[in-house]
Amino acid sequence: MNVKLGIIGFGGMGKWHAQNAPRAGVEIAAVCDIDPVKQQEAVEMGYKMYPSAEELLRDDNVNTVILTVPNYLHKEMCIKAAEAGKHVITEKPAAMNVQELDEMEAACKKAGVFFTSHQNRRWDKDMLIVKKAYDEGLLGNIFTIESKLHSGNGYMHEWHIYKKYGGGMIYDWGVHLIDQILFMMPQAKIKSVYADIKNVLHEEVDDYFKIILKLDNGVTAHIELSTYILEYQPRWLAAGDKGTLVVKNFGCEGNIYRTGKMLEKLPPQITETEAGPTRQFAPVPPGGIVTEPLPTVETDWVNFYRNVVDVLNGKAESLIKISEVRRVLSVMEAAWKSAETNEAILFE
Amino acid sequence: MNVKLGIIGFGGMGKWHAQNAPRAGVEIAAVCDIDPVKQQEAVEMGYKMYPSAEELLRDDNVNTVILTVPNYLHKEMCIKAAEAGKHVITEKPAAMNVQELDEMEAACKKAGVFFTSHQNRRWDKDMLIVKKAYDEGLLGNIFTIESKLHSGNGYMHEWHIYKKYGGGMIYDWGVHLIDQILFMMPQAKIKSVYADIKNVLHEEVDDYFKIILKLDNGVTAHIELSTYILEYQPRWLAAGDKGTLVVKNFGCEGNIYRTGKMLEKLPPQITETEAGPTRQFAPVPPGGIVTEPLPTVETDWVNFYRNVVDVLNGKAESLIKISEVRRVLSVMEAAWKSAETNEAILFE
């Protein structure tokens, strides 16, 4: 079958899918939006346009929908689409919480339609470099992985600044950053979740979070996002007993850092630094730390839609399973609870 | 009175005090060590040398001692010194735990001698820059302060690698890094302590830790140390709703970073980065983030011993109070418990 996609919600991400899904052979069958401005845009761009989701869902030419409406509408739209017999792709977060997701999944199962979520950041090159280092043991036993995303852009936009619409950065990006960690180390169980979540610039919604996952493979994952840390720290830092890896940014600048044998048994000499005497934190001799290039990875986000096409033609399993989406939402719920109580949430 | 110091333990730090305490007018009255090599060194350096602490403590010319023995001996030596009527300065950590400290303090009170701990890193310029920014509100409402200390030196030395002697990095440096945070924000109560503590390269003792203190002033302090993170991250990062401060290293390179008004309401445009579409994490326009120099501070570690001299002459209060030392040890105990149980420890 050809995937004939209906786009429900023609804002920024709706337009993005309209432009990019065809790269996998997906046909944009129709779009809808309740906003007259966006309706007009859709018409001008040559798409078949409906003024409501209900009307789009009655179009027999649409066999699959992508939900690019604000987060709080995902559940309602998903269930309506399933009941109309359409396969459902949601933008992330798939749902506002685990309970909503379970209702959505039940509706899709009942209707016999496919259900997945656009966790597109599983194809991010920066993350895949760290995953490759983990999979191939390039750093030895890894003890810490830091995933950081900092911005100087400060304020969020549109419905993202309202709590009732599912705004805030945990929903917008936390769902990606947690998913990336669990995707990177799928065998690892989560021992505990601890979180610090703040509203720095926004009244209603979080714009800073740190979520710490202690995993049973010896790795502790530190996920941090801020819309207002102005000197951006590296996108990724992973450290093991054989080296440290840094990926600075989306552009994947960075290195692996290693020490020579010379450093393993330094003479126990106290050095006077500008902040007093220290032995352990004295400067490393020149040449003592050497760099290697990062491992190379190939990635293509279009594989998300290619996989959807394959699944709908019985040729592949879904790359984004609802059980995985559910696990991420469970971590998000644990993070909210941790931040509220200041306690760590024991997990799995 | 003149401070006539007996140095108990003539290893690296014993020699360091011998060299540096005189800068505050302190007289080195005697030193002792049980190691014949160090005894010989002391003689060659012209110090009055005793082969045991007991003999040094019988020297009436010594009125004050500094304990530069391995950590597990601090309690025993402190109590012996107090009973001999000597004022006591301990190297840090003052004690192995709160209970030991309480016994030491009781012995000093009973003997009517002064008791303090050499928390010399309260005079570190890098920390004082952050403290000044906090005190003067240079960053607005601060939401995160990161204190990081990374080294490529890997292995520790001598007794620091043995648990029974009080080895490991929480004892060696955690005691400083926690003390600095509490010294920086003395009015703030600690709501919870969460910690991740690991042995990366060492069999018995910790060489990596992350300790998170949620404070009731809105700041969360993240303290991290590793002897084997090879691309050193900034010594300090503090971020508030009016800017971000970075102090890169002991040498105090760094800046304050601020945004202009232009960034406060960016147009809600999705940008295609090398890792897919994003609005919030799109690059900031050139010139959008501006830098200012760090605030300047003057500091002089010699004030530690000058204060000891003043205290012993009734002219000042101690700058390092045992109640503060006790609070730091309490946080260390909470951190150990947190790391062991994976739970956060509610505090104060």
UniProtKB/TrEMBL annotation, chains A, B:
Entry protein name: Gfo/Idh/MocA-like oxidoreductase N-terminal domain-containing protein
InterPro entries of this UniProt entry?
Gfo/Idh/MocA-like_OxRdtase_N, Gfo/Idh/MocA_oxidoreduct, GFO_IDH_MocA-like_dom, NAD(P)-bd_dom_sf
| Gene Ontology molecular-function annotations | nucleotide binding
What is the scientific name of the source organism? Butyricicoccus pullicaecorum 1.2
Which residues are in the GFO/IDH/MocA-like oxidoreductase domain?
A: 130-245
Tell me the domain of life.
Answer: Bacteria
- Locate the Gfo/Idh/MocA-like oxidoreductase N-terminal domain: which residues? 4-116
